[in-house]
Task: structure prediction
Amino acid sequence: MHNKILIIGSSPRRGGNSDIIIEHFAKGAENAGCESEIVQLSGLNISPCVGCERCRKDKSCTRLNDDMTDIYEKIKHSKGLFMVSPVHNYNVTAWMKAFIDRMYCFYDFKEPRPNDWSSRLSGQNRQAVAAAVCEQLDVKDMGFTIEAMTMPLEALGYEVKDHLRFLGVFSKGAISEVETALKKSEESGYNLAVSLKN
Ligand SMILES: Cc1cc2nc3c(=O)[nH]c(=O)nc-3n(C[C@H](O)[C@H](O)[C@H](O)COP(=O)(O)O)c2cc1C
Result:
């Protein structure tokens, strides 16, 4: 596993607010000497999980052969993960939800169900940051977006080091005018990179 940050973007708008957050986060990580790689989900073919449970036996997703196959390898080899979603109806985007559900194959469940379970990504000092951007000014209009990323990340075995909530940003690219947001993204990338080295 490498001291690398895998960045998962889930906005369908290229050059939009999430992408600008990603750019600044990656710059911060680079300033701390950490390599990052950006994966933009909306350009890829990623089916939602179909719940076939084949991964229980096979320990990987053997039912769906799509762009997640490459991403699984990137996840396994990157100690850091940065997940970014614009708020779509109080929640993550459909692309991010499909991505999260496809991580189901990393779990081991003890039979009979329901019973104890564990993640094959846990116990490896994996660390993550979750970020969300939305139009409205009241944090309640961000809904479950941060929790929808943080809870699965923690269940998978990541320590979530930071939650970035950017409010009041609607138009494509508008966040580039919000100096505090850019600074916060860059600082968060820097801090995650430093934390990964320790
Ligand atoms: C389908 C859809 C649903 C949205 N739902 C919400 C919402 O529930 N709350 C909110 O504050 N903004 C909502 N927005 C606004 C976006 O979160 C906002 O424009 C954001 O800056 C988009 O980020 P992006 O440029 O990275 O795509 C919604 C936008 C779309 C397209």
Remarks:
- The first strand starts at residue 2 and ends at 9.
- Residues 11, 13, 16-18, 86-90, 133-136, 141, 143, 169-170, 172 surround flavin mononucleotide (CB under 6 Å).
